[in-house]
UniProtKB/TrEMBL annotation:
This is Class I SAM-dependent methyltransferase. GO terms for molecular function: S-adenosylmethionine-dependent methyltransferase activity. Coiled coil: none annotated. InterPro entries: Diverse_substrate_MTase, Methyltransf_11, SAM-dependent_MTases_sf. GO terms for biological process: methylation. Keywords: Methyltransferase, Transferase. Belongs to the methyltransferase superfamily. It comes from the Bacteria. It comes from Jeotgalibacillus proteolyticus. Residues 48-141 form the Methyltransferase type domain. CDD domains: AdoMet_MTases (cd02440). Pfam families: Methyltransf_11.
Length: 259
């Protein structure tokens, strides 16, 4: 299952590499504005961006650090993104699995992973790897879509995410992430939970072109319960079609407490 999921990630992100590099949903957000303030980068810091995608974290962080390693499981995605980041000479590109990072222990002052961890089949391995490669006292910033604590709402969310994008593994809840952090020596210093609005048509067509699949996703949303529509804040057009909905996004910064 893990290998299948990672192959799906490579397939999806190879096919839609430019869609993610140019996605305004990923390029904007309050979290990007908070990023520099939270991690307090210095000109001596070496940073790592895990699953860089369109490179939005790199754009923010590169001007403030000595060097930054942009990694991604998908070579085609990384190759494409590099063409948008030519103004930053201190960026190094490495094809890397977030659950098996090709770096030595205690290498990085700053590690960031933004809107990607829900694609990782084994989030516990990912967190273990983060702790391994970050220096003692180093900062780890995680930003990702998170599921509701209510199991039925969480199931609804993970179902529509995987229908739209087969490379989706699972969006964890905040409590699940906090448990993984605590179990792996990462102490949360700051956190911020917000609602992120997603225009439905832009969201669904970013990874789906087949009209049959788009119709299936639309039908799934149409059959949502009142509780599901309320939690995800459906905004419907006059004709009943879904215009937009909202997901929870969690931003947390932790420091590594090596013993």
């Amino acid at each position: 299952m893990t290998a299948d999921k990672k192959n799906q990630v490579k397939s999806i992100f190879s096919t839609y590499a430019d869609a993610y590099a140019t996605s305004q949903t990923h390029a904007k957000g309050e979290d990007l504005e908070k990023l520099i303030e939270w991690v307090s980068p210095s000109s001596k810091d070496v940073a790592l961006d895990i699953a860089t995608g369109g490179g939005n974290v790199v754009k923010k962080l590169a001007p403030f650090v000595s060097s930054i390693f942009a990694t991604d499981l998908t070579k085609d995605m990384l190759q494409n993104t590099s063409t948008y980041l030519t103004e930053f000479p201190n960026v190094h590109y490495v094809v890397a699995d977030a659950e098996e990072l090709p770096f030595l222990d205690r290498t990085f002052d700053i590690v960031v992973c933004r809107i990607a961890a829900h694609h990782f089949p084994s989030p516990e391995k990912f967190v273990q790897e983060v702790f391994r490669v970050v220096k003692p006292g180093g900062r780890f910033l995680l930003i990702d879509n998170v599921s509701p604590e209510d199991p039925s709402l969480a199931h609804f969310m993970n179902t529509f995410e995987e229908m739209r994008d087969p490379s989706h593994a699972k969006a964890l809840s905040v409590l699940e992430w906090k448990r993984l952090f605590q179990e792996n020596g990462l102490e949360i210093e700051k956190e911020f939970l917000s609602k992120k609005e997603l225009p439905f048509q832009n969201w669904v067509t970013r990874t789906v072109e087949d009209e049959t699949k788009i119709s299936a996703v639309s039908a799934f949303f149409s059959n949502a319960s009142p509780a599901e529509k309320k939690y995800f804040q459906f905004h419907e057009q006059e004709n009943g079609d879904l215009a937009s909905f909202k997901l929870d996004q969690w931003m947390a910064m932790a420091t590594a407490k090596h013993t």
